[in-house]
Write a structure and sequence with these properties.
The radius of gyration is 20 Å and the shape is elongated. By secondary structure, it is α/β, with parallel strands linked by helices. Helix 3 runs parallel beside helix 12 and helix 6 crosses helix 7.
Amino acid sequence: MILANSVSCTPALASGDRMHFDQLKRRQFITLLGGAAAAWPIAARAQQPERMRRIGVLMAYADSDQEGQAFEAAFRDGLRRLGWIEGRNTRIDWRWATADDPESIPRLANELVALQPDVILSHSTPTTAALLMQTRSIPIIFAFVSDPLGSGFVRSFRAPNGNATGFIVMEPTMAGKWLELLKEIAPRVNRVAFLFNPAAAPYARYYLEPFTATAASISMEPITAPVRDASELETVIAGQTREPNGGLIVMRDAFNDTHRKDITSLASRYRLPAVYPFRSFAAVGGLFVVWKRADRQFPASGDLY
């Protein structure tokens, strides 16, 4: 799991080195958000015990999604352990936008900003982009963003110079690692499709470039496989089996996460070797996952708050 703090990044992390979340001291992320007055240190809380802080949360899941519910529980637990108790000194306003309805994201972002919360937790790249279109003053913490620099969310890791900060999900070189691992578990594979949704993953090129470069280095054919809605999933996955020795890499984006059961079921039905980004894919039948629990990112977001 790759983690970066875009407010107070160490030189090693700023240069791209990876850090494991479990090795980090979570309290080091209690820092200023988007400027000197945005954070609420423990001393200030002691002086103003009755003030209710308002948190907005914009998710890229339906509220019934089990993965989204796990994120919600993890975030609430992270806040609770730091002394932020809902109903006593915090109020949380949740908004749930589904990956199948990208037009709902700007509408819900507008709703949250209109509430004027003290801080907003943003789930993904599309939700963060929508929130930043609405406000440049309310602090925004992004929890699952792949390329905050390329997306224009921050100016640099060391000095973001804006109202957004948060976490990088994983380095782009992971796309090459996925490909190498797929080759290890299925040595005959020589054609690999890289599955993503363009609306949910406007940062796709961030991973496609190392994916393509790695494929060339190990004599594999890289196939870019964008899917724009769920009806296209079977066409893309079945297409990989029309010729022998096909494989599949599922990129992490909110659309693929939402349709993880459909994707794993189709890969199983067509007997297509596949690599998945999160353990939640294994829970619905995915056989090879190279990342651990994604909900561990959300308690860290509570630490930043």
